[in-house]
Design brief:
Elements (H helix, E strand, L loop, with lengths): L1 E9 L6 E7 L38 H12 L8 E7 L4 E7 H15 L9 H5 L7 H23 L7 H22 L6 H21 L12
Antiparallel strand pairs: 1-2, 1-3, 3-4
Helix pairs in contact: 1-2, 2-6, 4-6, 5-6
Length: about 230
C-alpha cells in the first residue's frame, strides 16, 4: 500500500484541509468506504461520451465518486487564496506556499489517474511516482518518458516499436475528454472557482503535449545534446 498525504494550511480563519490517498498494488486509489450520495457523481449524470461503463452495471462514475469529498471541501474556496501546502510521500515531503490551485490540481490529477477509469490508466505510472507542483516542462518530460518506457516493454513482448507518438496523442485526447466530463459535473456543484480552475490547468496539459509533439520535442532536445 502506498500512502500520500496532502495538507492545506490557510492564513485566514478557514480551517486547514487534510487528505490521505491510499494506492493499492495496482496503483488504484482505495475507495472511501462511506457510501456516495451526491447526484452529480452518478454515472448517468453528464456521462462522458467515451465512457466504457454501463449504467446497468455501475452506479457511480469512479472518478466522480472518488473526488466528490474533495470537491465538496473546496466548493467555496477561490483559486487565488494563499495556502501552505504540504505533500508527504513515502520517500520525502514536498512543501510550497502559493495559491490553492498549486496543490489542488496535483491532488485532483492524482485521484483522476487512480480512480479506475480505463481512459486514465496511461497516467498511473506517473501517479506511482507522484510529483506535486510539477512544472509544465517536468510534466512533459514525465509523459514522454513514461510513454517510451511503455513502448520498450511492448517491444519486449511483441517485437514492435512505435515512435510515431500517434498512440500517445490518441490516449491523451481521451484523457482530455474525461477531464472535460468531470468539469461539466462540477460546474453545477461548486460556487467558487478553485475546483474548476484546477481542472482547467489539467486540461491545458494535453494542449501543451500536442504542441511539443508538433514542435518535434524542441523544448527537451537541448537536454540530450551530449
Amino acid at each position: 500500500m502506498i500512502t500520500i498525504e496532502y495538507s492545506f494550511g490557510f492564513d485566514s480563519d478557514r480551517e486547514d484541509f487534510f487528505f490521505t490517498i491510499e494506492l493499492d498494488d495496482s496503483i488504484q486509489a482505495v475507495p472511501d468506504p462511506h457510501p456516495c450520495t451526491v447526484e452529480w457523481a452518478r454515472l448517468d449524470y453528464c456521462q462522458c461520451e467515451i465512457c466504457p461503463f454501463s449504467v446497468s452495471e455501475v452506479e457511480f462514475c469512479p472518478i466522480a465518486r472518488n473526488v466528490s469529498g474533495l470537491a465538496a471541501t473546496f466548493a467555496d474556496v477561490f483559486s487565488i487564496e494563499e495556502v501552505h501546502i504540504s505533500v508527504r510521500v513515502e520517500e520525502r515531503i514536498y512543501m510550497k506556499t502559493g495559491r490553492v490551485t498549486d496543490g489542488l490540481r496535483s491532488l485532483l490529477g492524482l485521484y483522476m489517474a487512480t480512480s479506475g477509469c480505463p481512459h486514465m490508466a496511461i497516467l498511473r505510472p506517473m501517479a506511482r511516482f507522484h510529483l506535486p507542483f510539477a512544472s509544465m516542462e517536468e510534466t512533459i518530460f514525465r509523459h514522454f518518458s513514461c510513454f517510451f518506457m511503455r513502448q520498450y516493454f511492448e517491444y519486449q513482448k511483441t517485437g514492435h516499436l512505435d515512435f510515431s507518438l500517434e498512440r500517445l496523442s490518441e490516449r491523451m485526447a481521451l484523457v482530455d475528454k474525461v477531464n472535460r466530463g468531470i468539469c461539466r459535473r462540477l460546474e453545477v456543484f461548486t460556487g467558487a472557482d478553485a475546483n474548476r480552475n484546477a481542472l482547467t490547468i489539467l486540461n491545458s496539459i494535453s494542449m501543451m503535449l500536442d504542441m511539443e509533439m508538433s514542435a518535434d520535442f524542441d523544448t527537451l532536445r537541448p537536454l540530450f545534446d551530449y
